Predict the 3D structure of the following.
Amino acid sequence: MPQTSQFCTFYLDSLLFGIELRRVQEVLRYIGMTPVPLAPGVVSGLINLRGQIVTAVDLRRRLDLQPRPANVEPMNVVVRSEDGSVSLLVDEIGDVVEVEEESFEPPPETLHGTVRTVILGVHKLQDRLMHALDTERACQITEEMEAVGPTQ
Amino acid sequence: MAENDIVSDFLVESYENLDRLDRELVELEKNHGDRDALAGVFRTIHTIKGTCGFLGFTKLEKVAHAGENLLALLRDGKLVGNPGITTALLKMVDAIRQTLAEIQASGQDGASDYPELLEHLKRLQTAGSSTSVPTVKADGSPAPVADEIIQHLPAPEKIGGVLVEHGIVSPKELAEALEKQERGDDRKVGDILVAEGHVKAEDVTLAQTVIEARSSVPAGTIRVGVNLLDNLMTLVGELVLARNQLLQFANTLEDVNLQSVSQRMNLIATELQEEVMKTRMQPIGNIWNQFPRTVRDVALGCNKEVRIEMEGKETELDKTIIEAIKDPLTHLVRNSVDHGIELPADRVKAGKDRVGRLILRAFHEGGQVNIEIVDDGAGLNRDRIRQKAVERGLVAADHAARLSDREIFNMIFLPGFSTAAKVTNVSGRGVGMDVVKTNVEKIGGTVDVHSKPGEGTTVRIKIPLTLAIIPALVVTSGRERFAIPQVNLTELVRVESNNASRRIELVHGAPVYRLRGRLLPLVYLGKELQLDKREASGSSEEQAVNIVVLQAGERQFGLVVDEVNDTQEIVVKPLRKQLKGIKTFAGASIMGDGKIALILDVMGVAQRSGVISEARDRALAEKAAEIAAVEKAREMQTFLLFAGPDDACMALPIETLDRLEELPASQVEQSGSQWVAQYRGRILPLIHLGHALNERRGRRRHPKPATEAADKQIQVLVCHSEGQTVGIVVERILDIVEDTADVQYPATRAGVRYSAVINGRVTELIDIPAILRSSCLQQALQTAPAEVVH
């Protein structure tokens, strides 16, 4: 009996990513954000989630990807982290997929940089690879990132 | 699992019970014969003992049991309380508390079974009973006979107790009835009393309802987690927003039914919000309850006698605030006992009651809660504080001489300040008072100290009702809204566009604004937060400049914002860990339109902009009192200069004046012995300054103020004092000038406050209340005795 787990998938710069479904609280369309001046660049702003103030983290920036084109409105994947809810901004939401444990492989040695710390590894789907996100890591904003101002 | 729940319930309940025990035992010490208090203490211990036995904490049970035995003797009147017994019982409470902590940590009752304490408690049972009888007789407290009757009285939850309490039967009659019961009469006490003709049957029924009401009281409360309350609060906040939208929508539709429903919804939501807010409120008595014990222990430790009184125990405060002020309050209370109140012998020598009084007072005032800690001790020693401050280099000697009493007293809150001649284990270690101040200020409060030598000291703390909701000023900068907590706000200044560039000057590139003659450093919010550089740079020339004057600790600075919107009560929500690193923001809040606004941390902004640099922060804080005092002394005041009698140069601070009037002398009329003039539909009493200052006792009649020709104009200064408007007739108005008036000389005649050099001339500052008092006007108006107004 192979062990399976469910992932909520989404796209970032045409790459496929996945978050364990049990970590996902809800998925929302784009909602207005209040920018936080002086915050690290990965923090896009604050959103009002039914009276709760939730920090929105731009996953593209978090994963060192190209900035999102201006015409693409991001969607919110609200996840539960150790420090309450965090909204992860993604380009587009995909399906919920069920993967077996055997399909998992750690990231290749040739992968360097920040990305390596945020990605657990990949699941080999039939037609493509799904990057499994380390949700806790993705929600963490470290001291070095504090130094990065929002303005270039 | 289930057992764990029972244990944790037991722990929570026992902690509460122990806190109550502390209080009750101290109460009991003051009032040995108080049977209600004794019964309460006994019940509490009994409950703890019972539950321990049930849960198998045998060591704890043993300790409680020893205490219970001792208490039983006290309750039955076989033993009379004394400080030794109370101390032992309090020690037992401490032992129980310690064991409970061990249970909480390990699930087992502790290693120690307190053999010494048990032995001591046992010894007191026997030793006490033999010594207690003589003491009863010696100090003339209740005779043994009365004791015996009391011993037979049942607790107030029994029918007989209620009847005695209401004075329907005498204790003796009840004792007789009880005796009958003991001898085998199987009727109820009530029935026996009715049969004997002592009471009516209705009274017994009434007493029964009283008992039922008493026994049902504890069912009225349940324990709820704070998280749940916080969630409720969040949801209610959202409900209120949804309601606002609904109301707007309903108004556009003009549907009567919808409108009436939405109106009801409006009322319900508002009420719901208020009620939910209340759930977080706790009476301040919850933390005060431990103070009788604290005071007793500290007082015993330094051989003092102190009585604690509390006023306004029921004053409610938000839970978070209650927790935040607990430590500062404890420190202040200990300090008052340790330093404030004198030794009994010294008190007697000073003609005071040998028992010192410590009063805790709490009350609401203007949306804030005031807490006062008042002692009737020796008061603060002004000269010692001054000397110490100079010694420690906190203030320069020549400045110290000029400080007012209040400024000197408040120096005790400076870091590193302690005047305690000897360091006790309680206080005097030079930490404390500044920590008290920091902690109170952290929650948006203020501390102030007043003292009168020989009469005592009052420390007053003012704190907001709640931290969750604060009044704030909403401003806009770079198209974003920000909230500034009102506590930091001093004033708002708007510099109009035509002279903005002239009024805002540069000190080597750093913008400053002259606020009443002092340079106020300016911080541009847009620039500081890197919002939009273009907007910030262009603004100073064409647009009006809005300056929000803020107080950051001891420093003031002006925050330049694009727009000042309005003031609002905002719900404060903390920022998540990801954003905690940004010191500029204290939190966030959801505005009426559902959007989020960040709350500025004024200290953080000041630090970021360099108004306060962390390196010199400490040094500044120490010098702050000095700077403030010097500035205060140098403060510019506006004076009206006028010629008094004999062309003497005289002055009045402009704020005491209502108006300057020129009246024709013909308008002056006489009413009784008083000269008056009709002024704005009222009768204005007139006092001629020349006559008032040369007043001699016993002279009742005044000459007409204007003795000159009737067509002459007289100069009248319309001013108010103690609720009374009067006109002071002077010879000539000279000028209005700004001056510091810091060279002063004491007054040489009545009606003058002091002389000062104003505008280069020695000028007398007249004292309106004194002039009013010296004229017969005061008696005629029958106003209350005047106070000297500074």
